[in-house]
Every structure is written in structure tokens, then in C-alpha cells.
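Encode chain A's predicted structure.
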Amino acid sequence: MDVLTKEQRRKNMQAIRSKDTKAEKRLAKALWKKGFRYYKNSKTIFGKPDLTFKKFKLAIFVDSEFFHGRDWETNKHRSRTNQRFWWTKIEGNIKRDKLVFDRLTADGWKVLRFWDTEVHKKVEYCVAIIEQTIKEKRNVKKVF
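Encoded structure for chain A:
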């Protein structure tokens, strides 16, 4: 049984964002401050990555631990209400994430995924990984 009323639950669920989350904004601002320019939620790229560097074929996703199933096998029993719904939804998200990764890498894209808490706690580390990936992509392009 849910501990919230239907109205409270509805308001909570409406407040959950699918794009422009705090973690995405934080990472985007940190990259912008370093001089990197990117596309946000590009509809022309399969899976609509949160941030995209089309020139380098680099797609970046910032994922919520709950909705994208971080440590899913150990955490799946945390949801005590409406388990069937949440298990189906989150397992579907995990499958979709894998499909997006497979499709983008098959098309020559480099895909980076960060958990939102990782971005909040270590944004400089995330930026360094992105910076290193772009540097490697630049060097590959110069060789040819």
C-alpha cells in the first residue's frame, strides 16, 4: 500500500524530469565553463542523448540510479509498492539503454554514461573523462 495519497503521488511523479535534470545542468555548465560546446537532447541522434558532440560522435547520458536500475539485482527489492509496475518499467529502461548503446556504437559513436550522483559528487572527474575522450577523438581524426 502506498503511504502517499493519490494526489501527493501524482504531484511527486509530475515533478520528475526526463530532461534538464539538476545533474545534466551541472555537467553541462561545467563543460560550458571549460569552453566545450554541445547539443542538448538532440532528436536527430538515436536515443536522444542528454549531451552530444556531433563532430566527435560522442553521446553523453546522465542517468538516474532508480529509473535506470543501478545495481538492479541488489536494489530491485527496495520498491515496496507497485513492484510489478516498477520492475517492468526499470527493466525496460535497462533494455532500452543497452539497445541505444549498441546502436550508437555500431554507428561509430562513443557513448559515455554517468550516474546522477556521480555527476553531483564528482563533476570535475566526469568533465575530465569527457575531455580525455574528446582529446582521443581529435587525435584519431588528425591521423587520417
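The first helix runs from residue 6 to 14.
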